Amino acid sequence: MRRLTVLTADQLRARGQQDAPLQAMRLHRMITACETARLWLAQAACRIERPAATAADAQAAILARLRTTDEAVALLANMDQALGAASFATAHPADRIRRDLGLYLRQAGPDALALSSVDRILADPDLHQRWIG
Fold it and tell me: Which of 55, 102, 103, 123 has the most CB atoms within 10 Å of its CB?
């Protein structure tokens, strides 16, 4: 995600479009998508990798995975709008990264994962308190 953001920023700069308001807005969304995913993943890693981790801590990893997917999809859409059709050319530096990320995002069962995660959060008072309040 970060590499695609760097490539987009570089392309906009090379085209002289870095100051165009709509392009700046798209780049801003890409930057915040990267940071949102990073924060979710860092939080999940802290919960899962601690010595006292419990099975309930797996919810942090599941939610981070789902949030990261949503942020990556949004990032790809903003990159496509910013760069246009040129970035789909096989010679474009973003093309292979886009295809690799797109394949990763198509892992099996995200809807079932989300539904089972919500079921566990609603059923467990501690998880409910942590994630819902």
Answer: 102
